[in-house]
Amino acid sequence: MTQGLIHALSRRQLVAAGVGVGLGVTWRPARALSDELAGALRKFTGDAPTKEGRVNFDIAPLVENGNTVPITITVQSPMSAADHVQAIAVFNEKNPQREVVACKLTPASGKAVVSTRIRLATTQQLVAVAKMSDGSCWTHTVDVVVTLAACIE
Amino acid sequence: MARTLIHAPTTARKGEVIEVRTLIAHPMETGYRAGSDGRTLPRDIIRRFSCRYNGELVFSADLYPAISANPYFAFHVVANASGSFSFTWEGDNGFAQTESAAITVA
Q: Which pTM was predicted?
């Protein structure tokens, strides 16, 4: 019986180790933003420091057609007069221009959720930034793989 | 006049958060593509979209060449009074178009 227990434990540890290895392969820390992208971001945020969080950038991780890519940006905010999202912007790394879209919201929006469709020239990194009424800026960075690029045909 | 599609509820309860979806037919020529003669096609995009609710600006967006052809936007508005939405698109080559939609708030 003790032998059985030892066997079970080692098997469990083995499985756990296997999961750990699997995570190590698939989980990568977010890449640092390129200088150009960080510069475009700074132009939007001004001097306010940006923090990761509160923003959810919803985009397919594997894009088949870069000519029209649906995106949805959701920001956690009560959208009250005292605390609301003032602006949401999207920036990219490798299109000819860094800016993608910049939206302005008001407390009359009720909900900080914006959807649109964008073009992606190639596999790259995208950043969504939300500027709050208290001046703080929140970001969400995503990496997307594009198989058919826009701007070629 | 470009064709537009506007999806907004015609009735709503007071204080309800409603979703508004808009689409306008426009090529959104980026200014980076080459035409059949090899020369770069001049840029022709919509640069700005705005939505007013009973005259008050509730949503606006600055568009760049990275926005797909036939720009689509979905956003939310708090329904607080009966009246109308007015949607305006402005862009290169003097493009300007305004559409409206009525809403009844009970």
A: 0.82
